[in-house]
Amino acid sequence: MAEAIIEVKDRIILCARCFNITEVSPCAICTDPTRSSAICVVEEPLDLIALERTGAVRGRYHVLHGAVSPIEGIGPEKLRIQELVQRVEKEQPDEVILAMNLDMPGEATASYLHRLLAPLGVNVSRPASGLPAGGDLEYADEITLGRALQNRRTL
Fold first, then answer.
1. Whole-angstrom Cα distance, residue 92 to residue 43?
2. In whole angstroms, what is the distance from residue 130 CA to residue 146 CA?
3. Is residue 140 part of a domain?
4. Is residue 2 domain-resident?
5. CB of 108 closer than 8 Å to CB of 68
6. What pTM, to 2 d.p., does this model score?
7. Contact present, 39 and 20 (Cβ < 8 Å)
8. Which phi and psi angles does 117 have, rounded to 5°?
9. CA angle, 55 then 37 then 33, to 5°
10. pLDDT of 135 higher than 80
11. What was the pLDDT predicted at 17?
12. Rounded CA gap, 51 and 35, in Å?
């Protein structure tokens, strides 16, 4: 078992382009010619896996490896933010989707990234937030209900 763990540790690297965990760099997602130019920014590799399972993101990804959190001593310089800015300048994607968590560090990170990326002329978006499928209104918190109503769509 110990040998298997050591082998995995030796084989796993970060993709030089998106910073996802992979065995080859650039990774399979970055080299897939069928993907759009959009870049979906996530906090962690597990977020990428969750989004990829949905099949809704047909672009590429960029993994920050965390979120801005002054309380925990995590500033922008500790994340892969500068690499993202350079990538957007070089690749000029159609859109950058900020798929951060809906907590205070995620919101702070998304706001910070928007301020950095918007002047570059790229369309910056954020996934809608609201009620989960199958959820009851009586159990939803006020913030979730408010966002669901703000992001409502016409039928």
1. 21
2. 8
3. no
4. no
5. yes
6. 0.87
7. no
8. -90, -35
9. 75
10. no
11. 97
12. 14
Q: What is the extent of the structural domain holding 119?
A: 36-127
pLDDT at position 113, please?
Answer: 98
HSE-CB at 53 with a 13 A cutoff on CA atoms is 6
Rounded mean pLDDT of the chain? 91
Split into its structural domains, the chain has a count of 1
Q: What is the pLDDT of residues 105-115, one digit of tens each?
A: 999 999 999 99
Residue 112 lies in a domain: yes
In the three-class reduction of DSSP (H, G, I as helix; E, B as strand; rest coil), residue 125 is classed as: strand
95's enclosing H/E stretch is: strand 95-98
Q: Are 51 and 62 spatial neighbours (Cβ–Cβ below 8 Å)?
A: no
Q: Report d(CA 105, CA 99) in Å as an integer.
A: 12
Q: Which residue has the tokens 């966002």?
A: 147
Q: pLDDT band at 155, cuts 50/70/90?
A: low
Q: Which CATH number goes with the domain that contains 48? A: 3.40.1360.10
pLDDT at 133 over 90: no
Q: Tokens 């009620």 identify what position?
A: 131
The verdict on residue 114 lying in a domain is yes
SS3 state at 151: coil
Rounded distance between C-alpha atoms, residue 15 and residue 88, angstroms: 16
Token pair for residue 103?
Answer: 């907590």
